[in-house]
């Protein structure tokens, strides 16, 4: 018996009077960062990125596979582990998350929990042209074909390292098609890789969908058990763009983070698990040599914390932050991410967006070191916000 997926309207979206602040036109087809923590790149930034950046990016160390090992994922779908929340880092910002397999009101337990794949990229390069500078320096945890059956594919924005068309094309061609979720402005992109329109869900910030997956029962009967979760598109501070033309005028597609929250049967005594995927995000805008602790930070994360906190598991980016003048607006430093962890009221977090592609100028193995220091500095308990090996499956009760 195969599993079926339904996607319906979920919790009422936040009511906004008139156009939301992140819409750059009345139709909601152009977007902007509405935050005081945002700064547009100026001519000096553009000069830097065009003429200096590539020369300053580091080379991958020879022993990269020792420094950041890749393991074969264990996934841990079965036995007692089925009841746990599970997350496997595939590499870069790609995560495979399985929500706990919960019993229904009749006591029937599904064979597995609902599964979400975030920002999958299995390609060898994160660019349309395979230049050496855009090549992976560590492999993904497994081949795409080795991934377990997926229910929802969730995309944060259209940059090449997050929306990988070859990967999405293969996922869209699976006989049992997952549903795809992305922020506004990405429908054409999804449909052009072969996702049927009925399986495309393109959302604005604060909009939600309820995903119901009918999963065969563990007891071997012909019954199915629904695994249900709400998926909410939430704000972050970033941008979009796949071609130089995308730099003309306000962005045509939106960027987002996402919250996945279990929906449990009525009268359930357990509390639903909440997972936060930050996508690609900055936290503030600083100039080089500026005191980072001065100036505004992105308000989105406190808002997310108020609405959804505590977050059981957050997947947070810690790499691609230097030089700060250019990168701080769009990418968190480890300290920024430690502060995001606190703002969203996370209990646990796994680091991502480092160690796969050389996007920026910080030393390749610096993010985990700086994360440790940052956690100590801002008072995050040891072991609460960790870096894992690629492919390491983490389990949470
Ligand atoms: Zn990006």
UniProtKB/TrEMBL annotation:
GO terms for molecular function: N-acylphosphatidylethanolamine-specific phospholipase D activity; zinc ion binding. Residues 115-354 form the Metallo-beta-lactamase domain. Pfam families: Lactamase_B_2. Coiled coil: none annotated. GO terms for biological process: N-acylethanolamine metabolic process; N-acylphosphatidylethanolamine metabolic process. An N-acyl-1,2-diacyl-sn-glycero-3-phosphoethanolamine binds at residues 160, 331. It comes from the Eukaryota. One of its GO terms (cellular component) is cytoplasm. This is Metallo-beta-lactamase domain-containing protein. It comes from Tetrapyrgos nigripes.
């Amino acid at each position: 018996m195969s599993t079926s997926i339904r996607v319906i309207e979920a919790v009422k979206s936040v009511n906004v009077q008139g156009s939301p602040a992140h819409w750059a036109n009345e139709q909601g087809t152009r977007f902007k960062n509405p935050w005081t923590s945002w700064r547009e790149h100026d001519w000096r930034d553009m000069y830097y990125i065009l003429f200096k950046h590539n020369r300053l990016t580091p080379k991958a160390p020879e022993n990269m596979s020792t420094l950041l090992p890749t393991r074969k994922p264990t996934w841990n779908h079965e036995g007692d582990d089925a009841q746990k929340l599970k997350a496997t880092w595939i590499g870069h910002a790609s995560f495979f998350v399985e929500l706990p397999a919960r019993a229904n009101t009749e006591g029937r337990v599904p064979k597995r929990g609902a599964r979400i794949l975030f920002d999958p990229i299995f390609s060898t390069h994160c660019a349309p042209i395979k230049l050496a500078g855009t090549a992976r320096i560590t492999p993904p945890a497994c081949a795409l074909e080795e991934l377990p059956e997926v229910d929802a594919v969730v995309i944060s924005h259209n940059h090449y390292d997050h929306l990988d068309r070859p990967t999405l094309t293969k996922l869209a061609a699976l006989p049992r098609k997952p549903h795809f979720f992305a922020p506004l402005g990405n429908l054409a992109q999804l449909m052009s890789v072969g996702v049927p329109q009925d399986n495309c869900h393109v959302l604005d910030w604060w909009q939600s969908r309820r995903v119901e997956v009918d999963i065969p029962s563990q007891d071997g009967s012909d019954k199915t058990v629904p695994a249900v979760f709400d998926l909410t598109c939430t704000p972050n501070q970033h941008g979009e763009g796949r071609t130089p033309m995308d730099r003309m005028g306000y962005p045509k597609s939106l960027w987002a983070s996402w919250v996945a929250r279990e929906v449990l049967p009525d009268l359930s005594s357990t509390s639903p698990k909440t997972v936060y995927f930050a996508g690609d995000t900055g936290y503030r805008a600083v100039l080089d040599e500026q005191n980072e602790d001065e100036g505004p930070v992105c308000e989105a994360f406190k808002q997310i914390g108020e609405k959804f906190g505590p977050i059981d598991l957050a997947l947070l980016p810690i790499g691609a932050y230097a030089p700060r003048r250019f990168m701080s607006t769009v990418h968190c430093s480890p300290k920024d991410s430690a502060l995001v962890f606190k703002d969203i009221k996370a209990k646990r977090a796994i680091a991502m967006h480092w160690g796969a592609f050389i996007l920026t100028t910080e030393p390749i193995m610096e993010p985990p070191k700086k994360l440790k220091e940052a956690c100590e500095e801002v008072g995050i308990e040891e072991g609460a916000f960790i870096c894992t090996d690629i492919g390491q499956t983490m389990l949470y009760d």
